Protein 1
Amino acid sequence: MSPTPAQGQGEELSTEVVVVRHGETAWNVSRIVQGQMDPELNEAGRQQAVVVARRLSREAKPAAVYSSDLKRAAETAEIIAKACGVPNVSALRERHMGYLQGLKWDDAVAKSPDSFRGFDIFKLTEGSDPDSRNQELPGGGESMNQLKERCISFLNKIAQEHIGERVVVVSHGASILELCRHPDPPNSSIRRHIPNTSLNVFRISGVTGQWTLERCGDVGHLKGNEFLENSFGGDGASA
């Protein structure tokens, strides 16, 4: 069965990119800064991945599944790709959090308050210094703007390679939040909720390159399953 073209107006000139946050890990539950550290899915995370894979397999078939090579994303993507019958390609990693990786969030803020000043997790708060988005985290970590540029460049690249098609990208909380910021009006500050295995759907024009965020934080596939729905709130603090 060949990949199904992306649906909607102008489908032949745009790409539908479904960005999925990986399933839950034990570090999510314990509120530990993961960054590019490599914990695997816990049991709830594997069940979440199976449920979201089942949902995606019933929708328009993607041309490919792209995934971060970190275990939590790669395992989620492998389950989705198998259910959809398409290849899984390594791709978009989480933000590098420098020396803060492996610390609990409260400890990370205490250790490096300047790195978090003006931010509510990843939301730029009123009155904060926009230049703080250029501040690299200690220990080789990325700045928020470096992360944003990396994520946007990647999505633009695969959008050009898959015009008229649907693709799935399995990534991480901080990366997805930065992708969601891209179509926002300048200087806006929108609080978003990106739970584990949520679907975040972008349409990217193959003519103008314009992005449209069509859905964000969609976890309809977890509804009715209290264990999976409540296992982790996914408010961005686990990124």
Note: The two ends are 36 Å apart (CA to CA).
Protein 2
Amino acid sequence: MPPSRRSSKQSSSEKSTSPGTKKSNDAQSQWIMMVEDCVLDDDGGNEESRPVMCKLRHPKSDSGCLFLFANGGQDVYEAIQYKEEFRSWFIGDTVQHDGGMLMLTTVDPLFLVMPYLLKEGQSGKFMTLDQIVIDEDYPECNRLHGCTGLSELHQITEVKGDDDFRAYRFDKDKTLSWLKLKTEIVADVLQQKDVSVSSSGAHSSIFIRSKKEDAVDKDQYIKYACGMVSDYLPPLIAEDLRDYLGVADIHDPIKSPSEEPPAKRVKLEDIAPSEDYSKTHGVQKQTSKETKMTVAQKKLSKVDKSGMKSISSFFSPKVKT
């Protein structure tokens, strides 16, 4: 993705920073962002076509996140921040202590309006878009009305009316069918780019794989793609999508067949011998083979030992008289 003119200008200023730089104010008034040039086009300075950054409710976390509306509000992008702990930016003669970087990625506006459709769909009534997409905490959500992607609302809703007046109602079956298509498209792209999604680690594309292995890889790509799509879905819809696709929970690790089960923790007081080894008088030891004696041992066995004391008797305590 080519950087914008603003980004290249800031990166060049980093090289020309003088040693005596000044620390920027605590109130951060600027950010480093990587965007495409077309996002910053303002159509000859028209105020309405300028990019607008605002907070919207994220469909998965239900919390506020930064989004950018561009091209006159027709396209919407999510602002994702990449940040390291020890990182700063040198901009001109100042040091910006926050070394984070914002990157924009396009978002289908249907994902952003889905939580509102799901909420209002519980009433079972058909409602207009301006009645559905309304939020007191994030009033900028009304900008979603102008996104071109909402022309596909019929993919996830039932529609009544004509071009002049349309009412919508959330349709779960149509939504899951649409999400399945989205997941398969993502999985195909991942497989075409040979992105490693296997839990066993990276694999080489040089190997000749059998049809059975290709089927397993396809399932892995579907599961991975389902996780990516679920990052923009309400939890209830994400769970329904997993059931609809027949994949396991995204966060459950895939267990290898050769993986041994974890050892069971046992208390010491619960450990007891299976046999009573103190009672050995009735136990006869059986040896499969007689041990072979050396020549010296054979000669020693023939010696008359009567009257001889055992060597251990010299170390026993003396009996007091």
Note: Residues 1-26, 201-208, 252-260 have pLDDT under 50 and may be disordered.
Protein 3
Amino acid sequence: MGEEEGLDEVIPTCFPDLCLGDIMSSGNDQQSEALSKPTFSEEQASALAESVFGLKVSKVQPLPSYDDQNFHVYVSKTKNGPTEYVLKISNTKASKNPDLIEVQNHIIMFLKAAGFPTSSVCRTEGDNTASLVSIDSGSEIKSYLVRLLTYLPGRPIAEIPISPQLLYEIGKLAAKLDKTLQKFHHPKLSSLHRKNFIWNLKNVALLEKYLYVLGQNRNREIVEHVIHLFKEEVTPKLSHFRE
């Protein structure tokens, strides 16, 4: 991709002792998804942060992730720059859609400029917002989109006592966020509309295939009821709602 796309392209790449082994596999139903998830070690992540973003890494720790891979990156102290970052490595499927990552980065920058407490998108050594890195795994070459954000300290809401005031502040922030994003425009915004994307709230019905993990209990009954109501009451009206 060219400079206009905000993406470096590094093909192929194989650092010493950095070639990936076989990508993880799981059950038959989830094997394709599992095969696409990156499995970089902390040493590999450190090498990427240094080679792609020019950081002098002092420590790397893994962060939770679903189908991508995230690392908490610590760097040696600098006079006027951050010392903590998040290195995000997209799975092979998402890495084939650089427009999606570009739009996400622009949304983060848009919200940052609007005064929201978001991370900052970091530039690569090639002065772009992401880099497509290809790794020779021995049997094939796999490509991953890599980007870097400043680390945003904080505590998950699940770890702190909930109060009416806190819930009010969360709702207020969500409303402000929604109102602000109505002003966001990008020529590739349509890349966000992924069919059957399970994290899209209008695809609630897709969760039916995962009900089995709840077993037979009251929680399953509640979830089944919510999905039923969504299909009956919400789905027929989706076209009338603003996204």
Note: Strands lie at 7-13, 57-63, 69-75, 84-89, 130-136, 141-150.
